[in-house]
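Notes from the 1:1 (GR / supervisor)

We went over the backlog. Supervisor wanted to see one worked example end to end before approving the batch request, so GR pasted a single chain during the call. The sequence is below; no edits were made to it. Supervisor asked that the structure be written out right there so they could see what the output format looks like.
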Amino acid sequence: MDKGKEALVVCSDKSMGIGITIWDLDTGDHLLHIPTCASPSHGLLCLRNQFLVASQIHKHGSVGGGAIFTWALNKPQSPLRSYPVEAIGSLSCTKDGLYLAGGALSGNAYLWEISNGRLLKTWHAHHKSLNCLLFSNDDSLLISGSDDGMICVWPAISLLDMEDSGSSPSLLHYSSEHRSSITGLLTTSSSSISVLVSSSLDGTCKVWDFVSGRLIQTQVYPLAITAIVLHPEEQLLFCGSVDGSIFVNKLDIGLLEDPFFIAEAQPVVLKGHNGGITALTFSELGLISASEDCTICMWDVVNWVIIRRFNHGKGAVTNLTVIPQSSLHSVSNHQRVSNQFHVSLLDKYPQPANSFKGTITPPSLCHSYEEKQTSLDFRSTDSLQQHIFDLEKKRTPEAVQMKVETCIENRMWATRMTKHVMEMNKHLQTRLLDLMECRMFWPTEIDIPTSKKREILKFESSLLEGEEKPQSSS
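Structure output shown during the call:
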């Protein structure tokens, strides 16, 4: 297998026995089968091109019916099996692979630290099943979509607030514009604003400024939309529907700021499936679509034709992801230093900060980790930073773990500072509103004495400087 080649990873939710199938995208050859996996839509992801993580919807050793399996891609026969307190559907991870978010059928959301499996936060995010989870491109926000049509945006800094892990995180904003289940979420930051695109069974795709929560435009389709994906250049939006059609629209938001705008341009329609579209993704070779008809198509998006078809006769594909074929190779000695990364069993319940479980690492790294693993006291001091620097020269597991702990401490400090700033802003806004109310009742045609004008100007200046309101005679 050439280093630059890609592999297609697919799975179904029909039966645990079907498992995961991996194909060579260039030739269509079958590369690998991983048994024992049945994952719902949005329930499969690739972590740092080294691990596959999949939520399981069938009972398999868990009282609550939930399970999350993790496979090392270079030796996927024996997964790491974690059993959350309830069944998890959708999954999402940060770009750096440090954190994993999971959404439950109950509407609850969970956040784990992957390196030690610690459950950092659990909260009731939605009233109905949580269908989609997505971290923003810079990992600063977690976006969730539900069966109730709601979309919520959660600041990551509040999710990582370790001082009060039992409380619900702060909600940046939410939307109830969709009238049916959310089926897809994706983000792009190529334009002047950070854009979120959401799809729903109500037959619409909506484009948002997800930082402010402002609705930019709505695209209406004649059918329920079941999956969406953006072209890598982020100019074309592909929307799969319940009858197997794929609508292709130009994502042109420009300077448009009218939330009531409805895109009316006739989209290109791709037809190659006999069942509803279940998943969409992109590879270097083109668009890839999966359907309830148990087929997977790879499309040339220039000529709009199918260039390869895969048959998955064991059930409708619910998840697609593309990985480098080099991820399936055994890790060489040279790669040990640069690619070292491990994951742990995910906690079912919140655990003390210093509680750690066994980890799973690529087999070629296990020996090195066992030899050098030690118990360290992590403190945010100058000596700690020097210790990390010294360990980094050797690329030891201790260095990786210490950097993670230091990152958490820094984020806790940032959380406290953010809360303080937010409280100050709230106080200042309240005082400014009081001033505006007073000025609304000032007579406009009466000449105000110079002494009073000076007193008013001094009052306004004190507000901007954060001083106490001066006492003035009426």
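Supervisor's comment: The helical segments are 156-159, 333-339, 363-372, 382-394, 397-440, 450-464.
Batch request approved.
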